[in-house]
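**Folding the chain**
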Amino acid sequence: MKGKKYTFVWEDTEQTAEMTLHKENKLVRFSWIEEKESYFEFRITQDELTNDVSLIIVDFADDNDYEEVKGLWDTQVADLKHILGS
């Protein structure tokens, strides 16, 4: 992290993104430096009736990359769940 620029490491690949949107405890969006039109974001929502909390990940990828990107996020979320003990 350096200011609003973040370096993400996916396996052996590094990519730099800039935080372009941030709403405390609700949403954070990162726009890729190399691909101006592409971004990914994390949203946290809480159901008013059940108080269940959800993490929603939005990632714009080419249709050809869908399965690869989905697999990557599935792995990352599984690692997060493991770390959190859930």
Q: What stands out?
A: Residues 66-84 form the longest helix (19 residues).
